[in-house]
Design goal:
With 96 residues, the chain is α+β, with helices and mostly antiparallel strands. It has one domain. It is built from 2 helices and 6 strands. The strands form 3 sheets. The chain has a two-stranded antiparallel ribbon with strand order 1-2. A two-stranded antiparallel sheet has the order 3-4. A two-stranded antiparallel sheet has the order 5-6. The longest helix is centred in the N-terminal third of the chain and has 8 residues.
Length: 96
Amino acid sequence: MGWNQQTIEAVWQRGRAVAGDDPARWRKDDCGAWIGRAEFGDRGSQYAWEIDHINPNGDDAIGNLRPLQWQNNVDKSDGRLKCNVTSRAKDNVATR
């Protein structure tokens, strides 16, 4: 799906800011994985993120969207968040 810049920014703002890190550049997703603002859609980066529908049957309203590190988004195929990637210090690591 093609998202416009306004929606991408609004979803980015829903990520968790971390004290001591620039919230315009770095945030964490609901699994605690680092996401980088500039890495939106770049699956070649460990900090890449995508826009996830919290309720897969819901609409594209901002309240139903959240930023997820791309592997956490892919692993949500059955609609449930599995948190297969989280962080250790400044790196993202697999949980299994």
